[in-house]
Specification:
alpha/beta, four-stranded mixed sheet, 4 strands, binds zinc ion
Length: about 230
């Protein structure tokens, strides 16, 4: 991971020089009607968090789309990006399931960050991950390795570099990978080796790598923030 942050910054700069960032199209957010009380609460929490305006503003500023992108909340599909209609799908149930992980792991008590905040942090990372897929498609960017890793890195980098307190938020998103990993058996199953994503624990550690590379080690909270779960 040595110097990879610098390399990514340079790549973003080169894209800018080539005019890849010159086109502008909006990112629109739409909500399907919630179908339960839980979904209603999830929608309210998402709207009130302001996470969507963060994504919209980041796209405008740092990765403008040629084609208008839609982020649609609700339904049963996702989180995923569908290239056929250039839409990111985010079900309300993702919020509900995520907040349960943070609550049952006593996030507030152990890590001094509320379960609600941890959940919104995870939604931000997940939206950026899916928006990363959308951006690769929109700009026809060639990806030579695993695209899933590329968009995980994109999400972490954008959060750490351009979102206020995004370093804390990226750690919550990493912790969510650790929670999911703890839920699994000790050994990975054969079908997980076929999965296009890296293993949850790999995603946890690689997100932390961006944090350790971006944040000066002299920061007083540096070591406190690390070693939280593993
Ligand atoms: Zn993906």
């Amino acid at each position: 991971m040595f110097n990879s942050l610098t390399i990514l910054r340079k790549i973003l700069g080169i894209w800018g020089l080539l005019g890849i960032f010159s086109a502008h199209a909006t990112v629109q957010v739409s909500y399907l009607p919630p179908e339960s009380t839980n979904e209603k609460q999830a929608k309210q929490a998402i709207v009130e968090s302001g996470v969507n305006s963060v994504i919209v503003d980041l796209a405008k500023e740092h990765f403008p789309f040629k084609q208008a992108l839609t982020i649609q909340y609700g339904g049963n599909e996702g989180p995923l990006y569908d290239p056929s209609n250039h839409t990111v799908y985010m079900p309300y149930t993702f919020y509900t399931q995520t907040i349960e992980y943070f609550k049952s792991n006593h996030y507030q008590e152990k890590f001094d960050r509320s379960a609600d905040l941890g959940t919104i942090d995870t939604i931000m990372h997940t939206l950026l991950h899916e928006v990363g897929h959308a951006y690769i498609e929109d700009q026809a960017i060639p990806i030579l390795g695993k695209e899933e890793d590329a968009v995980d890195n994109f999400a972490a980098l954008i959060m750490i570099e351009y979102v206020e307190n995004g370093d804390d938020a990226s750690i919550s998103a990493a912790d969510m990978f650790a929670f999911e990993s703890q839920d699994r058996p000790d050994y990975y199953q054969a079908d997980e080796y076929i999965d296009e994503h890296s293993f949850d624990l790999q995603r946890y550690f690689s997100t932390l790598c961006w944090f350790t590379e971006a944040i000066p080690r002299s920061t007083p909270t540096y070591s406190m923030k690390l070693n939280k779960i593993y």
